[in-house]
Amino acid sequence: MFILRDLLLPLQTHFSDTKLGKERASLFVYTLLAIIVPFTSSMSSNLWRGLGVLFGIDIKKKRFYTFMASSTLPWKKLWRSTWGLIDSPETEGRLLLALDDSINTKVGKKIFGCEQIFDHAAKANQSDYPWAQNIVSVGLLKRVHARWACLFLDFRFYLPKKTIEAKSDRVKMKGKILPFKTKLSQAAEMIVDIGEHFSEPPLLAVTDSWFGNAGLLKPVRQVIGERFDMLSRLRCNNVLYDFPEPRKSGQRGRRKKYGQQLGSATEMASTFQAEAIEYSVNLYGKQRTARAYDRIVMSKSLKCPIRVVWVFRRTQWIALFSTDLELTVIQMIEFYGARWKIESGFKELKQDMGSQKSQCRTAQSVTNHLNFCMMATTITWIYADRLKTNPERRHKVKGRTSFAFSDVRRIIAEAGLDPDFSRLCPKPSNSPVNSLVATLLRMVA
Predict the structure, then answer these.
(1) Residue 399 confidence (pLDDT)
(2) Other beta carbons within 10 Å of 130
(3) Record's superkingdom (predicted)?
(4) Are strands 228-233 and 239-241 parallel, antiparallel or unpaired?
(5) I want to staple 324 with a disulfide (CB 3.0 to 4.6 A). Which of 187, 229, 311, 443 is the partner?
(6) Residue 209: which residues within 8 A CB-CB, separation 6 or more?
(7) Per-residue pLDDT tens for 156-204?
(8) What mean pLDDT value characterizes the chain?
(9) What is the 3-state secondary structure (H, E, C) of 388-443?
């Protein structure tokens, strides 16, 4: 209960001290709780019902919908306060940032940010170009009680250039057409903001091969300098080069930047496979053995030296690279393996928190709703990290011993619905909480 109070009260300080400001501050934190409580999906109508049924907050539907579509919620300040609530955000001296994009499929034509987006993960019975929102997200990779988790830090809606040029209502906010920005420029903006907030530790962006290029590395380093590095997957046709030979005395001409061409990643993989060494790595929650070979080479696409690690499986191989030459082979394999947690985070955000089921349509309400869901997800993981012991896994799964995201939500629900919590975090109204709610939660959690 006190952990929950310490997480929610700092968020209320960004609202005014007026009567209306205090009411909005209280409504804000209880809306976050209504999203976290595993009672129903986070559609605005369900949240309004949840505030009344779960917490006894009497508020008119129109007033609540106006609050959810408000253009004055201080999200930038609220997110920075949330970042400050993360205890020990560094992992082995670095801030690990997972970067990826996802889609939110929708039904309805007049929804902000919606467009026919290519889905590279579409199944055989699904459309390759669903009607959806494309969201670029950055999350913090952190070990929470010996398991990896992704704590969302920021996001951007990617709006296609053709939709902006068509002056569609789906790309307008407050009556103005938003400017076009590429995914890489949006990702760079978010990482720069995070780097300015966490001004001391080095930043390591763990990305897939689409984001792992100079389009992200160059603009970020221009602002925050050499303390930003990338860890990504190397494409099989990327050509690598050796370091240039030492310059001879009296040699004329400019200094060479690259040495002899070593070949593509595929050619080098077949050459060095016999020299691979076995490493013991903690990957996907288990201690595993991996055969790998590493070498520091020059990359013309990134225009800097990189450490490349070829990881060999029985019949396949992958090549990882990092601009941080101090990373070991084990660290590169484990950190890149932890990148999958941002995919798990998307599942928690869309299905567990219910952001995909949102019925919002206008730009402000869509943005506010996703902010609420992402912040609720991050608050849940911060709460789990502050627990002294590992939460008990309620639904046992063979081969899995760590706790699940739903287990933490259930613990937060019990703390938030405790009658004493309303004294620590006052509600907009003093209506009592129905005693039947706790029983219902135990049934549906």
Answers:
(1) 67
(2) 17
(3) Bacteria
(4) unpaired
(5) 229
(6) 232, 233, 234, 235
(7) 999 999 999 999 999 999 889 999 999 999 999 999 999 999 999 999 9
(8) 89
(9) CCCCCCCCCECCECCCCHHHHHHHHHHHHCCCCHHHHCCCCCCCCCCCHHHHHHHH
Q: Which is more confidently placed, 438 or 34?
A: 34
Q: Measured between alpha carbons, how far is 106 from 114 in angstroms, rounded to an integer?
A: 8
The span from the CA of 219 to the CA of 201, in Å, is 19
The one-character DSSP state at 50 is H
- Residue 67 contacts by C-beta under 8 Å, 6 or more apart in sequence? 24, 27, 31
Residue 87 to residue 381: CA distance in whole angstroms: 11
Q: Give the tokens for residue 76.
A: 């930038």
Write down the pTM of the prediction: 0.91
Amino acid found at 170: R
Percent of the chain clearing pLDDT 70 (strictly above): 95
Q: How far apart are CA 348 and CA 28, in angstroms?
A: 21
pLDDT at 252: 77
Dihedral sign (CA 170, 172, 177, 183):
negative
In the numeric block, the tokens 């170009």 are attached to 129
Q: Which two tokens stand for residue 350?
A: 């869309």
At residue 304's C-alpha, the angle toward residues 299 and 306, to 5°, is 65
Residue 247 has what pLDDT?
78
Q: Is 81 helix (H, G, I), strand (E, B) or coil?
A: helix
The neighbour count for residue 20, using CB atoms within 10 Å, is 9
Query: Which three-class secondary structure state does DSSP give residue 144?
Result: strand
CA separation, residue 227 to residues 23, 217, 222, 323 (Å): 42, 11, 11, 10
What whole-number distance in Å separates Cα of residue 221 and Cα of residue 375? 28
Q: Say if residues 121 and 104 touch (Cβ distance below 8 Å).
A: no
CA 328 to mean position of chain CA atoms: 24
**What percentage of the chain carries pLDDT values higher than 90?**
66
